[in-house]
């Protein structure tokens, strides 16, 4: 058994090695406050983390709705999931401009190999889904897209979306809506390119690949529709045009006012989280038996929030990206229940249908497919390393 002193010595040596490596990779901490350095789970990436402030303005929707208690919240979710609902028109008070400087928890990672890091000019901008946070991309050893990207010579930028995790939690009804999330993502692209600031960590990039999952895929797709020159390529997962089973999946969430749970104490009542615990999370996000029980347990203990403002405005940002002509890859778990009812090949190929609807102008630059034995959170299934490889190989094939 190792002595406590030896363990401390090894920990100190590791800290010195990380500091030395980061000093060689990152020329500064510019763009981050309260910054710190870390490695990805598998050690392929060296990262700088902290808060970054993003100035963004958007035309949100004035939502005629007061802050809900749990009884009112449950009734609202019931109305949202009803096929006969008029809640969208009943609560729509017209356009409302919002703007601010928003503190986001963010992480920029480079290959830990200094020679590989020096050659990087492409960053993968990673946007997570609803009730998830940025840990989706570096979840555990063997479940890290950040590790896979770094091993292939790419940088990654991940962040907790507005109103999630360690990012700021503004008004969950009037502020944290789909339109503002899209504008924040656009501003992040500009920052990474060095067009809105001097970059982050002393780094800027000539190419930005948007990688989005679920709600993050919706926001990434919305950027390509509104700002078609932002991304050099996009890869989207957890997204189709089929919504027939979305209501059943969301019902499995059994959404509750988030501050009823101890780890969300202090945030406003318009933030919701899972009330159904592990069974509901498995139902919506995983396909049995193709996941490790420890990964499901960790997902359950780290599940995050979404907002009433987002739930009421997701539909308003969805539109085909008619002017976008760069490469696109739509990739879903074959057994995604949320957007495919558990079978993304029925009644038609849902992946191909989504590509055709969202990206009518990409032609041969478009690709769609599905990964076997995987549910909605496909990157947390046992085949994750192969799924990462398919995305990264596609990026390589497009010479990005």
Notes on the protein architecture:
This protein is 35% helix and 23% strand. The chain has a single domain (29-397), classed as Rossmann fold (3-Layer(aba) Sandwich). With 400 residues, it is of the alpha/beta class. It is globular. Residues 1-23 form the signal peptide. Keywords: Hydrolase, Signal. Residues 125-381 form the AB hydrolase-1 domain.
Primary descriptors:
400 residues, 14 helices, nine-stranded mixed sheet, alpha/beta, three-stranded antiparallel sheet
Could you write a compact summary of the structure shown?
With 400 residues, this protein is α/β, with parallel strands linked by helices. It is built from 14 helices and 14 strands.
CATH class: Alpha Beta
Main structural class: alpha/beta
CATH architecture, by name, is 3-Layer(aba) Sandwich
Largest sheet: 9 strands, mixed
Instruction: Spell out the helices and strands N to C.
Output: HEEHHEHEEEHEHEHEHEEHHEHEHHEH
Number of domains: 1
CATH superfamily: Alpha/Beta hydrolase fold, catalytic domain
| Range of strand content | 15-25%
Strand order of the largest sheet: 1-2-3-7-4-8-9-13-14
Question: Rg from C-alpha positions?
Answer: 20 Å
Pfam families: Abhydrolase_6 (PF12697)
GO molecular function, one term: hydrolase activity
Domain AB hydrolase-1: 125-381
InterPro entries: AB_hydrolase_1, AB_hydrolase_fold
